[in-house]
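Think of the structure tokens as a kind of shorthand, similar to the way a musician reads notation: each symbol stands for something richer, in this case the local conformation of the backbone. In the example below we present two proteins back to back. Begin with the first one, reading the sequence and then the tokens, and try to describe in your own words what changes along the chain.
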Amino acid sequence: MGFQLPAIFGCLQVASLFAYTVGFFLVATLASVIGWLDFVQFSILLFGAALTAISVVNGSIRLDRPVVFLTALIVAAFAIQLAAFDRWDDITLYKIAVVLAAHLAVINYFALWRESPRISRLLTYGLSGVEVIIIGQIAASFLFLVGEVHIFRTGQIRAQGWIGDTAALVLVFFVIYHTLTERFVRAFVAWLALLMMGGKAALDLAVLSVPIAATASARPARVLIGGILAAATAVILFTNVVSRLPDLIDGDRIPPKEIPQISPVEGIGTSTWSRLSPDQQMFLRLVRNTGVLRLASIGAGYVLFVDHPLTGAGYGLTADRVQEAARVDVFGLQECCGITPTHFEFINGIHNHVVRLAAEMGLPGIAIAVALAAFVVVRASRLYVKRRRHACAAAGDGLDDMATAGAIWAILFVLFHQTGAWLLPGNIQFHWLTLMMGIISMWLPETRRCPRPVAPSSGDAAVVGCVHK
């Protein structure tokens, strides 16, 4: 057994992940692109990979077969990319380095982290601090129109603009965590912040998470009802009160609401369409346009994959190449949905993680996507199943609650969040997945067990929690 790295290195990893999360939201709030933020993320990921490499070399940790296989697969896939294409610019090489480090960091953090009181305390207080800071930034962005704010023609406001599609996934963890631990007021606040950001994919995952969190609790009915009430209360309050506050605070900065003339969405009758409010018409048109363009981008990915099945079209595809492939229109969208070739100019990338990797890296890219998803889901599911099997109380060990919430978040993210590219440099989503896998790794070692609840003997409630052997 070699020299084991001190726990302080694990604390530095946790602190760096928290700091990057706060920094990412700060960039959105200040509406400024800070170039060094990507470099900071890259440095953090390399830091985790370096620590794991040192630990493996000196024998203080051993990687199991799935970790070794996944690591070899990722390295080989990107080696094929570097060998198959002889023309690389600095930006593309940098993207490859970032995505390679990001993939390796997920499994490296999982292998490296070990339970320690310092890390547990840092996670407990750090998560609370991060939550308060980022929700404060979101509220400032929404109420005072600070930073990257998008205002629709109907006056609807989206805090932190389109960056919210990426950053809102962080808030889903807090919805799961507070629902699981029956802190429904804090879950309500997290829901309210999600509504301010308007991230559709994040809201969908948050809705899915409530019943799943209930199944992992010792009191599923209480958690399910409380979670639904927290979400419903947030929607009602946001719709009737919060959404009107920016206009009261600083109405001069919000353009007058327009009553746009919107042509009916295909499939909806004229009489039905005329009964909808302008906001409802705008929403349906936005959903339709967004869905059609995303489908067109997936079609573009299919075209590129078919043309280059073994190596892909090269990592880091430009928007021009995607738009050119989209014009092939493999799904016949111009005929069925009434779009024109001009619409394809609004496609800025392939809006599906697996299809994007397939188009850019071919079959090796698909292998990476499937293997990484399997790795995350299997590890997270092990924790989730143990939690359900032993019915740990939601008010028990704080690390167990965090790990269970992280497992639910990781499973939902990997299986259902396919609407964007996880691996763009600076993307907070993959960074947060790294944090979740680190938390999960602290719960799974066999030195921890979760006993079945003991029936009360003298009228006292049974005490259930995860303990050490």
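Once you have a description of the first chain, move to the second and do the same.
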Amino acid sequence: MAGHRFATQLVRIFFPGFFWALLGAGLVFATFAWSQQPATPSPGETPPEGPQTPTRRLAPGVMREVAPAIEYRETVSRHDVVELLAQNPNLPYAKGVWFRRTIWYLDFRFKDVRFIFVDLPAPDGKLQRQLVWYMVYSVTNPGGALEPVEQADGTFSYQKVDVPVWFVPEFYLEAPEVGRIYPDRVIPAAVAAIRMREDAGLRFFNTAEVPRQLQVGETVWGVVTWTDIDPTVDRFSVYVGGLTNAYEWEDPPGAYQAGQPPGTGRKFTRKYLKLNFWRPGDEYFEHEKEIRYGIPGQPDYEWVFRPMPFLTGAQ
């Protein structure tokens, strides 16, 4: 200790400028280090929310965007009220009745389908390495829902309104070559691995976690997963439901009989987004780089109506 003090005195006597420069550098470094420490909230203060890991900045085109198919005709439909006509087929006010509703749409962005190997529990309790197909996506409520408005002369026009929307998605992977439709599977272990690969700074919700009410301008990120996809599949489509509340319905002739519960025999179809993919590979070496967005001779995506429930008659 005495030797240390003696050396310090020599530096101060013979190199006074060096001594003060060294002391100043130490103070600057200490101040910088202190400023980099995470702020500790004071008692009663709410700590800042959000991921602690910075999110990745994606290159343009990595996330594909699908424009919502806004159609005014979906706000109205015309039907006979079969429940009343079954009691009296001559009721004029039960024929050709107009039904009107507000229709909303969500903005949808996604990455192409990818693969990841994950250790998942097997029926015997042991971990087994499995191939998981997955797709990362985000949805945003842009506002501007279409609302029918009756005019003074009895006709209807439309206005755009901002309303919160309940997002409750459906995902199905259809492979016509093998005659299969695969519903998504909720795999928490896979979601954790996907997050580390895609963006550790984002929270990806699986299909069971993501349902929520989205306010105008609010965005939520999700990931959908599948397993046990037939390795011979070359062309497949991903159907996404829940991006709009547009639907159609009909009462087939004779489906409803007097005395039956209202709505008996009625058939509904829901509007889905259909994303087409092509995998020009083989079943022996499955790799995500083989996946192409779009199918030759078909549109990359389209909006279609499918029966509800979706898996009616599917294997």
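Compare your description with these statements about the second chain. Residues 10-15, 17-51 have pLDDT under 50 and may be disordered.
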